[in-house]
Amino acid sequence: MSDIIKFLSDNNLNEAIKDQPCNYFLIKDQEKKESNPKQENKILNPDLPVKTAQEQPSQTKSHLQIKAISSTSEALQLLAKKSQENNMDNQNQSISLSINDIVKKAQELANKASNIAELRQAVENFDGCNLKKMATNTVFSDGNHNSKIMLIGEAPGNNEDLQGIPFCGDSGKLLDEMFKAINLTRDQLYITNTIFWRPPGNRKPTPEELAICKPFVDRHIQLINPKLIILIGATAMSTIIDSSEPISKIRGKFLDFAPNYLSQKIKLMTIFHPSYLMRQSNKKKIAWLDMLIIQDFMAKNF
Predict the structure, then answer these.
(1) Could you list the mean pLDDT of each consecutive 10-residue stretch along the chain, which spans 302 residues?
(2) CA distance 231 to 193
(3) d(C-alpha 168, C-alpha 148), whole Å
């Protein structure tokens, strides 16, 4: 009997003489793990600390933080934001081309222009505004340069950028209808903007971009020398008359516009931008009252 027990023990057949069964597959697996520890637990250099699992970067977590762009408008907004950030970085990196230097250069070029044709050429040749690098066309003006009514808007949109004409898109069609209602056509008006190149994604122009273009706008007003300036929208209003007041408090009122570069005062009035009226149709009644005010002014002064 003792020989049988010894035989079973020598051949790892202890299960035959135990009260409980034994899982040899599990035992073999445990022996394998003990004899072959994982590679990452080996310390190659005893002087270097071993990183724990919590200290290891989580690749899965970084993937979960990626946000997909779900719409075209979101993509355009992201593109506009990136373009604006790149423009700011380029300006900050260039010491010789600070905002003050660019504005000064624009002022010099604008002052050299003795007529509208020369001013247009100066704007088209000007490279100080980064918006020009991303635009299709320079949008200078439209209408009759002999008109005594000058309309100044904000900045070109997509249609304006493609055609090089201010207010030629949907908002422009509404603007034409507004003035047609008081018997004025586009060839009886002179139309321009505070910015000559389309901002990416139709975003609002930055203060730096407005400041760079302002010398050309001032010279534009000086050369046209209108009897009435109509500012279209809040951006044009804040840029030309340097006002932080909401447009609702300024619109419908005539102001005396008397900057240093003009020899005499010019009457100025602000109206809602057509694109705003397209979004807020309940404001069209107020816009119509503004047009009647303009018509009454023309009847008494033209």
Answers:
(1) 60 58 56 52 48 47 48 66 65 64 97 98 97 97 97 97 97 98 97 98 96 98 97 97 94 95 95 97 97 97 90
(2) 9
(3) 21
**Residue 226: CB partners within 8 Å, gap ≥ 6?**
147, 148, 149, 150, 190, 266
pTM over 0.85: no
Q: In what order do the strands lie in the sheet with 255-257?
A: 142-143, 190-193, 149-153, 228-232, 266-271, 255-257
* Angle of helix 284-301 versus helix 170-180 axis, rounded to 10: 50
| Among candidate residues 297, 276, 261, 266, the one with its CA nearest the CA of residue 154 | 276
Tell which residue, 174, 158, 122, 143, has the closest CA to residue 283. 174
Query: What is the rounded CA–CA span in Å between residue 168 and residue 209?
Result: 22
- Distance CA(164)–CA(155), nearest Å, equals 12
Contact criterion met (CB below 8 Å) for 137 and 163: yes
Q: Let me know: does 219 contact 109? Beta carbons within 8 Å.
A: no
Diameter of the chain measured on Cα atoms: 134
Collect all residues with Cβ–Cβ distance below 8 Å to 89 and sequence separation of at least 6.
Answer: none
Distance CA 21, CA 302 (A): 113
Q: Which domains are delineated in the chain?
A: 99-301 (3.40.470.10)
Residue owning tokens 């139309």: 191
